[in-house]
């Protein structure tokens, strides 16, 4: 299966050639306030922190199918850096490239903002993110702006792996 990503006026669209030959289309858009309960449910059901979603509603993007949020992720700015967070895909939709699609979208957003680097914390997906170009770093080497985020300071446990992707200047 091939996947292509195109930007279409601030919406990203991925098309995937399925086994049946159909071309299901997924688009990523900023989540609206009324979609935040679905985000919290999706995060909670996957063991991810959701406590600050409502406070930071403007940093989350998602893929909606038939009125339901099936995948989401957030990009929290922190000085000249970004924190990729809360990447989640509904179990029924895993294995279709949606996590990669949202991750690549968020990386592009960080580049467009002029971020120097993207950090993330994960308990279960370090190998996945390394495959996408992130590498592990010690938590004590993380910039103060990232350390001050609620995700880093209190929501993710100390046992979570910290990863980094440096971004070249625009």
Account of the protein in words:
This protein has 170 residues and is of the alpha+beta class. It has a single domain (3-166), classed as Gcn5-related N-acetyltransferase (GNAT) (Aminopeptidase). Helix content is 25%, strand content 35%. It is built from 5 helices and 9 strands. The protein has helices at 36-45, 98-113, 126-131, 144-147, 150-155; strands at residues 3-8, 11-16, 25-30, 60-65, 68-78, 81-89, 117-122, 135-137, 161-166. A 9-stranded mixed sheet has the order 1-2-3-4-5-6-7-9-8. β5 (68-78) and β6 (81-89) form a beta hairpin. The radius of gyration is 16 Å and the shape is globular. The relative contact order is 0.15.
Write the layout of secondary structure elements.
Blueprint: E1 3-8, E2 11-16, E3 25-30, H1 36-45, E4 60-65, E5 68-78, E6 81-89, H2 98-113, E7 117-122, H3 126-131, E8 135-137, H4 144-147, H5 150-155, E9 161-166
Parallel strand pairs: 6-7
Antiparallel strand pairs: 1-2, 2-3, 3-4, 4-5, 5-6, 7-9, 8-9
Query: What percent of residues are in strands?
Result: 25-35%
Q: Give the overall shape, derived from the CA principal axes.
A: globular
Q: Extract low-pLDDT stretches.
A: 1-11, 14-23
Major β-sheet strand ordering: 1-2-3-4-5-6-7-9-8
Please name the CATH architecture: 3-Layer(aba) Sandwich
Q: Describe the biggest sheet? A: 9 strands, mixed
What oligomerization state is this entry in?
Answer: single chain
Total domain units: 1
Mean pLDDT equals: 85
Cα separation of the termini: 32 Å
Name the CATH class: Alpha Beta
Question: What structural class do the secondary elements suggest?
Answer: alpha+beta
């Amino acid at each position: 299966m091939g996947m292509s990503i195109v930007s279409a006026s601030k919406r990203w669209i991925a098309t995937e050639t399925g086994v049946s030959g159909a071309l299901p289309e997924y688009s990523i858009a900023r989540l609206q306030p009324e979609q935040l309960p679905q985000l919290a449910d999706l995060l909670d059901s996957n063991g991810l922190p959701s406590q600050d979603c409502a406070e930071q509603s403007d940093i989350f993007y998602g893929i909606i199918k038939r009125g339901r949020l099936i995948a989401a992720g957030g990009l929290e700015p922190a000085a000249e850096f970004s924190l990729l967070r809360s990447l989640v895909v509904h179990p029924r939709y895993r294995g279709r490239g949606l996590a990669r699609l949202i991750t690549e979208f968020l990386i592009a957003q960080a580049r467009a903002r002029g971020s120097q680097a993207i950090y993330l914390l994960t308990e279960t997906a370090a190998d996945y993110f390394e495959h996408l170009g992130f590498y592990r770093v010690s938590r004590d080497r993380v910039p103060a702006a990232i350390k001050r985020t609620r995700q880093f300071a209190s929501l993710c446990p100390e046992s979570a792996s910290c990863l980094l992707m440096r971004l070249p200047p625009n």
